[in-house]
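hey so i finaly got around to running the thing on (Trans)glycosidase from Venustampulla echinocandica. pasting the sequence first so u can double check i didnt mess up the copy paste, my clipboard has been acting weird all day
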Amino acid sequence: MEPPEVKLDPLWQDLDWAIGAMFYMGFDGTEVTPQIRTLIEDHHLGSILLTTKNLTSAQQTATLVKELQTIAHNSGHLAPLLIALDQENGGVNSLFDEDYICQFPSAMGVAATGSTELAYEVANATGKELAAVGINMIMGPVLDVLTNARYQPLGVRATGDDPQEVSQYGIAVMNGYKDAGIVTCGKHFPSYGNLDFLGSSLDMPIITETLEQLSLGALVPFRNAIREGLDAMMVGGCAIANAGMNVMHACLSDQVVDDLLRHDLGFNGVTISECLEMDALSHDIGVRGGTVMAVEAGCDLVLLCRSFAVQQEAISGLKLGIENGMISRERINLSLKRILHLKSKCTSWHKALNPPGINLLATLHPAHVSLSTRAYDKSITIMRDKGHLLPLSNTLYPEEELLLLTPLIKPLPNSAATKAAAESQGGSNEHDKRTQRSSIMSGEGVFREFGRSLARQRHGKLLHTSYTANGVRPVHENLINRAAAIIIVTADANRNLYQNGFTKHVAMMCSMLSAGGKKKSLIVVSVSSPYDFAMDKAIGTYVCTFDFTETAMSALVRALFGEFVPQGTLPGTLRKSRKVQKSRQHWLVEGWNRDRDHRGLQALVKTIEKITPPNQLCPLLGATAASFELSMTTESGEHIEESHYVVRNSSTQALFGFCSTYFYGGIGMIGALFVDPAKRNLSIGHSLHQRAMRGLLQKPGIKKLQLGLGLPGIYLGIPMSDLSEGARLKRWFANNGWDILSPRLLYTLTIRNLSNWQPPEGLLQSVQRVSFGFDLIHGSENSETVLDHVRSNAGPDVLELYRLALDDSKSCGIVRAKSPVDGALVGTVIICRPGTPLATYLPVLHAAGDMVGGILAPVVPNSPQAAIVLQGLALLGIKQNKAHRATTCVLNWVQGDERDTLLGMGFDVLDAFEELSCKPESFNQSSHG
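ok and heres what it spat out for the 3d tokens, dont ask me to read them lol
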């Protein structure tokens, strides 16, 4: 891939400077150490990763970052240091300061809110806080797809297991960071979402999926983020073993970095290796050799987290690799240009040496606290509440006791609970406290404040104890007997199996005691991975918080006691498989308002376009808001009735779903129905469909209902180019009352390289032999016979398409086929030039590329000669398209039995649809009333 246009200063000819720029290193200590000073001054280190071991507060971080940049400036660095950290929120925060730095939900917690807008806001707030203390790069977003979600250590750090949803949230987060002025680094390419773990820490986790499987799943978010402008990419330290690839370490493989990431996915940003100090990698290869391999593979920055001796070894290894001719100076210059271009996007010496610091953070903090509360409240998810136990204020009497059972788990780094636990150990100085805090094991330290909050709600009527791998003890049995309601907290029970066993044991006890007449309400709360009991229906009331920070626990208390109604939904396939507690959620459906909804519809169309896999044609590609509005009268002067509907966010004006309907000629038609991919499976489509059907069924004189239509020709029916998705949509429409047993198959065909097309041998002679007359007409002259022919053999939507073509004599014409016996029409087709105004209503003419000629809506009644008539019409259409200098030809609205005839002429299938129709009386009107 071509590097960005960056002119290299002569200083970079010095090998030591060039080598220093290609390393990305960490260090131990909350102040500048002699080691990191040496790396910056003597080895010209250009990029630094800060972690929890470096940071104690916002003020200290700003001071440290400014000092690091000052050292670089004073020692002659041409560009400021790239200074990055991990700040994923949830349980992964390198920097926390309860006075200035806000806590936000994890990636999966944010996805549970169902709002990409909120994801953007949270990321933007996080980015602004980091920028204020001088950080210019964030190690995020996490773009991994949890293909094997229940058993992956990433857990809530990832959005979920749906590639399209991960894409949408990843891009929203990326844009939030960028708009805050910091650069982004996607991770962990090619994916940590479905790893096999073989044993010890010296065994490299393995990706066993094929490239095809990765391309359809794990790589989708990376591909989409690259397209949207991702700045950098971290390549993981995992192995890949499949039929086409055998790689020991992804970040050391040119097959992964140069071939897959750069060539196949088109990434031209900065690539960063996984830390070469990781046990499995350093044990297999060694740091010197690993550094050379990483650069040879295509990595621009080599990460070494903290050991000064190892870092020096890596620098000497890269220098030796260059001196030995293993790595060329051209290769080094390529990385330098990428790194310098990245730095130019996020920093300058003025910015690096003058971070706004505490003053800006103090200004931002109140709004960020409010955003944090809103985000956590919206993330709390009640997956099941079979017994309607929630809110507890409605089901638990004041005199009854509530029991809280919490596991002994490690506190989150830099949380207030951890700090308090550290201080309670009586460390003699700040250094002692910092070194202790990340290793204290104390469930009570994490959940003590949660218990206190519950006790305050219950005026002291709370029992609280912890549980361990020792299982249900007599103390637990006694407390369970006393309490009327029990809350069990679990955290990653799939990886801490004692939690699973304990919870099931308590659930069984509660069930037996309840059957014996003792009230025992059981609520299980997962405070990390929602997969703990997601599929276990025996746990009747199941709540998920997605992390166990103080802010999350505070939101949980308010949710349990009814201060707000939790609206969170489990992300990915869990959201899709979830049985909604009510029969259906009903959304407010409003009538389309052009002035109000035009921009929202444009944005919704673009969102759906973006998530369509690259190997599939999106029917909405090329469509605009105007594509759905015909605003015309029929040939008889009758107005075409249009009623379009939206489900929208009245606060942001965003559209969650859109449905277009038309009524003319006694037929009620749905021309489009689509929903924001991030809001699917929440009954939005059902609400829109129900409203649309109610409107159509009330039309006087309605004779038929139709799903899919030729004008506007956006959805000719249910899209079937993706068979599994098409089958899902058919089931959905069947469940909503449509007859799916006798669809009409409709196709869009194409010839992509028209200049090279030649008619099959003998075709011209066959057409000439049957003596049909073919001619081309424009405008209204002789149009009546054409319209009569179409009126008799096609629906009113196709009739109106012909009428529009006849009205546009400049860019459209009609090819007619006449019987040699009596001159009667036996076939017609519309021909249109590239750039025809008809493309507004037939976006496929835009989507297929530039200079597209159209052959539209062939109407050829069944007869022994129908195939040859169709071929003759298509031949004349192709001839006209060539004459109009079209490079591509699109043949739209081809009926099922006509497809094979046209494929034999050299056309290819571009898209396939199933048009559905049924009688109005087949719908239960009461269900749409």
